[in-house]
Amino acid sequence: MRLSQHDIDAIKTVVADVCGESAVVRLFGSRLDDTAKGGDIDLMVELDEAVEHPARLSAWLSVKVMRATQGRKVDVILAAPNLEELPIHRIAREQGVILSHE
Prior knowledge:
globular; alpha+beta; single chain
């Protein structure tokens, strides 16, 4: 995984502050490949409750995580009971890694 512990902790803190402690954050995509270079940070945030404005929440999380990780580009998808399940959600669940404080 090509994220520092500082970045992982920053991501977890931002998501907990914005979405609550029960939110689960998964990293997926190119940052899981230790041999790759560069790439944005792809995150899936899983929520237990319905999201009223998912596009706004996703954008807000992206900006806050970008600021917390020294300006790295961040893409955030949301999974919640009221949101449509797309193929990208399945990919994130199958290939992604849940971020945790170590």
